[in-house]
Design brief:
Number of helices: 22
Strand order of the largest sheet: 2-3-6-1-7
Strand content: 5-15%
Helix content: 55-70%
Length: 551
């Protein structure tokens, strides 16, 4: 047992030998005594242990190295977690403050009035619509056409106040007025005046135009598409160029606005040019069943006074003929058309001509005049910029058939609510995130600095977009509510369509802005691709999928 015990002790393990029964005594006591090592054996084992090399591990070396590596990883992970917590706190504080600031900015979209035109236009609208039911849109379009120096076409059945609107327009402009009903047998003398007998005596083919269309400032021509070829050529020149050929002379005409009316659309191709001369077109319907009782009271001589109507304009608060003549030119030089409005216009024309069935043709001339009309609408509203909601007026400009107006309106509302710029912003974000990961991995300091600038610009862009969305939604669409060119009914209908999608857009912008601020904050200090992965794991997976697809 002593040799065995010594071997065990030399191995650094102490264990008891199994008990062996002995004769003449207690088996357990004898076994315990024989199992104990002697003092000499212990001395030899201790000497062997002392003679082992210094630093030699008693346990496994690989296990110790693994423990040390785990400790280093844990220390590194703790540093990353602290950095993530630091970034999250900073971003949450700044992001939350921005949202609170934007929620308080409901009137930030309204600019200071550029002029006093809006009050004058509201007064004119109140005068024109007095005693008329469901004609607010027609009244506004007629005023807009006059301010643009363009013409208005009213399509609808007889007895819908089309001629009455024109007469009221002549009254508030204090301009000379001409009115005529055309038939298929109408002759040029009815519109342009009789031939001068004295001129014929002198071999001159001239007309006496006083009191006829060539001398009128406001005109109304009913059943205008019954114009025959003898009338058509002179009428086209007068409407478009504001010129009239009288004998061998071409004379300027003072025509401000002509209101044309018809019960039907033109049938022959030769009338297409005349149809195109009317920039603004409106389908006029009968008074709705809901307003028939009010119409009966008006007929009985006891009309209610609708809100917003006025009997006459206070001194200095009326549109003068000089206002009508000068507004179009002033608007072009004073009103800016921003890129987002240009995008709506170009996308709308492409949609109408390429994706609608049948295609809706929009001529270059009509497209350019539509832009000028939007500038006039903004200028008369007291604004220096056209906004996207002005494009709702295009339902009365683009389109060849009555049902085309609904296509235009639906597309404009969809374009405004869907916000294509938001989709572009998300693509830009993914690109910036991917470049940040790539340049952090490669250690490219110069490219990383460029990425920081891009991310900062994007954060500023998203802040501006969120501020506008918050001001629009929280302020109940102030730009749409304050414009003079939309009635209360059209505003409410547009808001109901816009709110759901724009509310969703606001949430998307908030999330995208926070993610952008996270990248911006991470890149402002020590950062790595692994840090960005932990901060934005979903975006990192998108980045990895992009790399895999390119490979």
């Amino acid at each position: 047992m002593s040799a065995m015990a010594c071997h065990v002790m030399a191995s650094g393990v102490v264990s008891a030998a199994p008990p062996v029964a002995q004769r003449g005594g207690s088996g357990t006591a004898m076994a315990a005594a024989r199992a104990l090592p002697t003092a000499r054996c212990l001395d030899r084992n201790m000497l062997a242990i002392r003679q082992q090399p210094v630093g030699r591990p008693i346990g496994s070396a690989t296990k110790l190295q693994a423990v040390r590596a785990d400790a280093q990883v844990a220390e590194a992970d703790q540093g990353v977690l602290e950095r993530i917590s630091e970034i999250a706190k900073a971003v949450d504080a700044k992001h939350g403050q921005l949202l609170r600031d934007h929620a308080a900015g409901g009137d930030s979209l309204l600019e200071d009035p550029l002029n006093d035109m809006q009050g004058k236009v509201r007064t004119a609208v109140g005068i024109l619509k007095k005693g008329l039911l469901e004609r607010e849109t027609e009244v506004r379009l007629m005023l807009l056409a006059a301010l643009c120096g363009e013409h208005l076409l009213l399509l609808g059945p007889p007895g819908t106040a089309k001629s009455e609107l024109s007469r009221r327009m002549a009254n508030i402009t204090k301009g000379s007025y001409y009115e005529r009903l055309l038939t298929r047998f109408s002759v040029p003398e009815e519109l342009f005046g009789p031939l001068s007998m004295r001129g014929l005596e002198n071999d001159l083919y001239v007309r006496k135009t006083d009191g006829y269309l060539p001398t009128a400032e406001v005109a109304f021509i009913d059943e205008i598409f019954k114009a025959n070829s003898a009338i058509l050529n002179a009428l086209l020149t007068l409407l478009n160029e504001r010129m009239f050929d009288n004998g061998n002379e071409r004379l300027d005409v003072p025509l401000l606005c002509l209101v044309g009316a018809s019960n039907e659309l033109p049938e022959s191709e030769e009338l297409d040019a005349l149809y195109d001369r009317f920039l603004i077109r409106r389908q006029v319907a009968q008074v709705s069943s809901a307003q028939l009782a009010t119409l009966a009271r008006i007929a009985a001589g006891s009309p209610p006074k609708p809100d917003g109507t006025v009997d006459s304009a206070p001194p200095g608060d009326e549109l003068t003929m000089d206002d009508y003549r000068s507004t179009a030119k002033a608007a072009v030089s004073a009103v800016d058309v921003p890129d987002e409005v240009i995008s709506v216009l170009t996308a709308l024309r492409d949609h109408l001509q390429d994706k609608c069935e049948p295609p809706v043709y929009v001529s270059d001339r009509r497209f350019m005049k539509a832009i000028n009309m939007l500038q006039v609408a903004a200028y008369a509203d007291g604004r220096s910029r056209v906004h996207e909601y002005d494009c709702l007026l295009l339902e009365f400009v683009f389109g060849n058939r009555p049902d085309d107006s609904q296509k235009v309106k639906a597309y404009v509302l969809e374009n405004i609510s869907s916000d294509p710029e938001l989709q572009k912003a998300e693509i830009l974000f993914l690109g910036s995130f991917g470049r940040a990961c790539e340049f952090l991995t490669a250690g490219d300091a110069e490219k990383l600095a460029e990425t920081r600038e891009t991310v900062a610009s994007m954060a500023q862009l998203l802040e501006t977009k969120h501020a506008r969305l918050a001001a629009t939604l929280d302020g109940s669409y102030p730009q749409l509510q304050k414009t003079v060119w939309q009635s209360d009914e059209t505003v409410q209908a547009a808001v109901q369509t816009l709110v759901p999608q724009m509310s969703e857009n606001k949430i998307k912008v908030e999330e995208l802005l926070r993610e952008t601020m996270i990248i911006q904050e991470a890149l402002s200090g020590d950062a790595s691709a692994s840090l960005l992965e932990k901060l934005l794991p979903k975006r990192f997976k998108q980045y990895q999928r992009g790399i895999s697809s390119r490979a």
